[in-house]
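This section describes the prediction task in plain terms. A model, or a person checking by hand, is given the sequence of a single protein chain and must write out its three-dimensional structure as a string of tokens. No templates, partner chains or ligands are provided. The sample shown here is typical of the held-out split.
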Amino acid sequence: MLKATAFEFRFRFLLHAIIYVVGFTAPWDYWLHLDTIRTWQYLAALPSRAGWLSFSAATNAVLILGILCALTAALLRTWGSAYLGVSIVKDVSMHTDRVVAAGPYRHLRNPLYLGTFIHTLALALLMPPSGAIFTILAIGLLQLRLIAREEAYLTEQQGAPYIAYCAEVPRLLPALTPRVLSSPEQPNWSHAFLGEIYMWGVAISFLALGWRYNAFLIIQGALISLGVALIARAFIQRPQVTKPTS
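The expected answer:
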């Protein structure tokens, strides 16, 4: 697997944002004069045309899927941030002084990246179908590259303890039961929720506005959540100690 460059890691949040913007705008749809329906509508139409569900019921089913993805992403990222530390999660540099094997890190090595990918699946429902496909593939590739860079760095810095940890804990598919003993980290839930305001804002937008069946309203909710999250970052202290990031 090709590792991400230092530039990609440093500007990973910006790169995610650019991919999302391209996915939502899908400029090639306009260049090629393609239909610009939302993926939500497209997916709802499939079981409706097959006669399995009415279009209304299928629309609600896709909405519920979006809500579940958005909530799962917010929960998973908050859980991971609580144990890893929000300042570490948001930092542009990689850190390490020991293996963090508490909370979700006992079940999988990269809960934050998995949470982001599940979040992407929720956002993809609001995009044109071609934009959704592009975004899911581009975010997936970027995530894998970032994981490869981080794991190579942690292996180099920590050596045997991290290699042993990787041998027991899966990279992205969570184990149902903890695979290692817990390390001593204690969760900081208040900072975790503060750091993941955007994720919770998107989940709330799906939950509160989705029943209006208007993707644009949910997108507006996501943009407002992003603005609030950028303000909240001012209250997150930069890291004082080194820890691994994922």
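For orientation: The radius of gyration is 19 Å.
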